[in-house]
Structures are given as C-alpha cells and as structure tokens.
Amino acid sequence: MDDVLLAVGTQKGLFLGRRQPASGGSGGRRWEFTGPHFPMQAVYSVGIDTRRDVPRLLVGADSSHWGPSVFRSDDLGGSWHEPPRPAVRFPEDTGTSLERVWQLHPAGPAAPGVVYAGTQPGALFRSEDDGETFTLVRSLWDHPQRPEWEAGFGGQAVHTVVTHPEDADTVTVAVSTGGVYRSRDGGASWAPANAGVQATFLPEEQRFPEFGQCVHKIAQDAADPDRLYLQNHGGVYRSDDSGARWTGIGGGLPADFGFAVAAHKHRGDVAYVFPLSADAHRMPPDYRCRVFRTEDAGASWSPLSEGLPDAPSYGVVLRDAMCTDDAEPGGVYFGNRNGEVYASADQGDSWRLAVSHLPDVLCVRAAVVG
C-alpha cells in the first residue's frame, strides 16, 4: 500500500499522520500522528510539493501573538524552517498587511518551482523558488473590480488556486466574495469567470452578476483539466471550459449548500462533496454524516457512509477540510469541526476514523510520499 502523508491543519496546530500496519495481524492499516506542530497557531493552509526529489511541506500558520507566517519542511515535518523575513508580505505601497495565508498551491508539472499563495486580504502571491519567497501578483491586486469584493463570513480572501497541468499560463482563483477569476497569460491579466453561477443572496433580478459570487471551493477533474467543479454558497456547478461557463449539477444532492469539493486524482468525472443544510443550522442534512460522490461529472450522486457515524451527526466540513490523494485506487479524506478526521482508501466506498479529539479541523491535505 502506498505511503501516504496526511496533514491536518487545526485551530491549534498541525498534525501529521502516516499509515501503519494494524495490530493483531488483521491486515488493516491504522494511522499514527505526530503533533501538534505549531501549537496555539491556526493552520489554514498546507501544501505538499511532491514535484521535488524530496517532498516539501509548506504550512501557513497564524499566531495570535506573532501574526501569520509560512513555514517549510524538507524532512516531512521532522524539522521546520521559518525565513528571517516573512515569505509572504504586502509591499509598503499597498497600504495593507497580511492577515492570513488561506492557500498554498504547488503548480503543476508545466511550472516547476512555482508555488502560489492565496491570502487575506484577497490577493495572490507567486513563488518561483519552491515557496521560499513570494511576490505579489500585481495584476490581480490592481484589478478594477477588486475594491468591490466583499468579505465573506470567514473574511475576504483568495482561498482557492487551480493551475493547468499542461499550460502554465492558465491559472484560476476563487475569491470570497468576488467569485472566480481566470488568467490565460500567466497572471498578466485576469477576467471574471462566473457565467451561470448564482449569487443566491442577491435579489432575484440580480442573481447572475459578472462577479461577486460567494464561491466556497473549486476542484479540477483528473482526466480533463479544463473541467472544474465548484461548490458555491448555494449551488454545485461544473465547467467544461476552465470556467468560461458553469452549469448546475446539484440536483441529485440532499442540499446544494456546502463548503468543500474535491476531485479524484486519477479518474475523470469523479468528484466529492459534503452537503450542508442551507438554513441557519448549516449542519449535515437530517444530521447524517455522508459524503456524496459523482462518477459521471455531476449527472448523478451517490451517498457514501459505510464506516461513518450514525445519525445524529453534527460535524461541519470546512472548505479546505476535504481532499483526495494520488494513491491507487484513490484515497479520500475529510475533517470536521468536531476534531474528527475520516479516511477512505477505496475511493470513498468505506471509511475509517483516522484520528479524533483534535481542535477544529481547518484544512486537510494528503499525498503519496514514498
């Protein structure tokens, strides 16, 4: 079985898990965790860069005393390095300062060494040295629509970055609450890419604005990198043209509200969501812990619950707290605000509790590291 590293960012530190042989000769696997790394720091973002000969971990941690910083490790969390000067910082002329790093995204094979950071306030930074230093992407910061972006409940942030594995010039970001923006020229210019996505919180006659949607998360299809899946603040969507146009695919779900969406790393047309009721509760519909999977790009959805807790279950999965790995046949993971992390090694068909009693889970990342 592949050696998978599972990184869990929480409200009070980072926990790192590795699968271990189960005791008693059962042939199963259990998880062994270390941590907390960065205790008393909120970890909102983790990037696992497996493009290097030695995988690099990048962590966006936020100390209430020292402020936000980006740490890196080249020995899978055995030791950590923090640069003497902040890796992500706003230039003085912007008149602002970094509040939080929401996303650390190693770009695809078409852009070796490139790592993107999405931040609060809403901005995109680019690194060309594997995440050691970052530069503000001025074209997005200076976009004429940026001053009109509002702050979502969690703040105004670039929280999602998607890069094309074969075309380094195509970069897509999601902003809360600015919507989706896409660059076709490596970040030199940006255009809103929200056609077809509703802003359900606006009056009926204003439901489809050019920008201003509250996008919660975007995931990229494994077989067709121009196909994207989007979990909105009300609505689940698919685009087949890198965001130029979106179509609703939430009809087979018990609720179309939620925060997280993830795509299978090897199989095309396969994606996962964790629906939440859209009312004031924002808990799993019928208080049932279920992941929903599509295997036909959203034409239909199937509930996955084998091994998950029975009702009532109240755990909420946040936007970056669900992910897939690049193992075979494919692992799926999610953590909730109850401090529980569940893992599936069979594409979501069955689940095991990997760890419990953690602080609020903010982000989950997994990758084969050996």
Automatic annotation (TrEMBL):
- What species is this protein from? Actinacidiphila alni
Quote the SUPFAM superfamilies the UniProt record gives. Oligoxyloglucan reducing end-specific cellobiohydrolase
According to its UniProt entry, one GO biological process term is: xyloglucan metabolic process
Q: What is this protein called?
A: Exo-alpha-sialidase
Source domain of life is Bacteria
